Amino acid sequence: MDALTRRRFLLASGVTGAAALATGGSALAFSELLRTADPATGSVGDTLVLVTLYGGNDGLNTVVPYADPAYHASRPELAYPAERVLPLNDSLGLNPVLTGLKRLWDERRLAVVLGVGYPRPDRSHFRSMDIWQTGSPKAPATTGWVGRWLDDRDAPVGTAVSFEPVLPPLLVGRRRIGSCVSYHGLDLPPWADERLVAALGRVEPGEPEMQARAASAFADLLEMGRVIRGTDKITTSPGAVTEPVVPATGTGGESALSAQLALVARCVEVGVPTRVYSVSLGGFDTHADELSTQELLLRQLDGALSSFTARMARSEAGRRVTIVVYSEFGRRVRANASDGTDHGTAGPMLVLGGRVVGGLYGEQPSLTDLDHGDLKATTDFRDVFGTALASVLNADPSRYFDGYEPRPLPFLPNG
Question: What band does 250 get if pLDDT is binned at 50, 70 and 90?
Fold first, then answer.
């Protein structure tokens, strides 16, 4: 392909913009991330994957208190009958679409932490998510709890990575910052010859620097597309799902969780030394028509997590991966008039992986002893994140939560 044709194609495709973005402090190309891998030694330690459910997931219809009459009385149109839930014990069960997570529960690889929240809850999506990601309920903070850990380690680029277009506050420190690698690959039409298109990504001798960087970015998009589709040399596990498009909301989050986790899996398998990954799923602001919307989202979550954990179980590095799933708040106990639920407070967190000691942790909040119609948190979110810091990242959690002394929970082994 002649240089002029190639240059016009790159400009038209917008890849030059992606290459320019790569000059920013937090942007990192997927190929650059892969080049940090050392297949001989593997990763440098255990890996933490944080899955953010943006919008406020309804915890009562995720981990269902199916035996509690107050649950059925408070939301008669939204409550799941006992015969539909996937029982965890004689009072709690998983949403009926969470079949993959139920298998992990039966294998003792899923921990469910009940009633997680923080003092003086805030029902604003943005303030509440800020609290979860900065670890600072008392006052706004300018750094995230993972970012402060990066500062302490004087961490190199790529120690913490978000596969999202925007870097979350979670990964921002004062002196160190996580890297942002957008999961969006390059989707080619069926008639396109990938070998011909790949030629656009070859850097040619003597070409201008920005054009060369644009070509590299183009090749990077092709590689990401192959990883996401499972057509690279390491394939995705059986049972991977094609994800539906979920209507966007203003509360944040991405819609293709499986694509993000496919990139995480590739990095773990080739020995990239990243210790913390951040991925997300949005759309959980279910003020109306909750049953169908939440089931669609939870089915997507279930398929993505099940496929990812199955793939991770096949390697030593993968078995050292721990996944923590959280949302900014739960929903109110009582349903609203639109077959949905409004912003609430406490909800369950999920922790899964090869090192996890499965089971129920914490106490299920009362559905009758409420705080102005909302659940009273029984577990502080910093205890859950603090346990992950101590066990997965070998860090003293008390250093990262503004005077709070996290109490370890036994869903992970010490250190």
Answer: low
- At the topology level, CATH places domain 3-399 in Alkaline Phosphatase, subunit A (3.40.720)
8 Å CB contact between 215 and 205: no
Angle at 199 between CA 194 and CA 204, to 5 degrees: 165
Hey, where are the domains in the chain? Answer: 3-399
Question: For residues 108 and 249, what is the distance between their CA atoms, to the nearest angstrom?
Answer: 35
> pTM of the prediction?
0.83
Of 129, 163, 168, 126, nearest to 257 by C-alpha is: 163
What the block records as the tokens of 180 is: 């942002």
Query: How many CB atoms are closer than 10 A to CB 317?
Result: 18
pLDDT one-digit tens code per residue, 255-308: 689 999 999 999 999 999 999 999 999 999 999 999 999 999 999 999 999 999
- Provide the residue count of the chain: 415
Report how far apart, in Å, the C-alpha atoms of 108 and of each of 205, 299, 311, 352, 413 are.
55, 21, 17, 9, 14
Q: What are the Cα distances from residue 204, in Å, to 4, 42, 213?
A: 12, 33, 11
Asked whether the CA dihedral 307, 308, 309, 315 is positive or negative, the reply is: positive
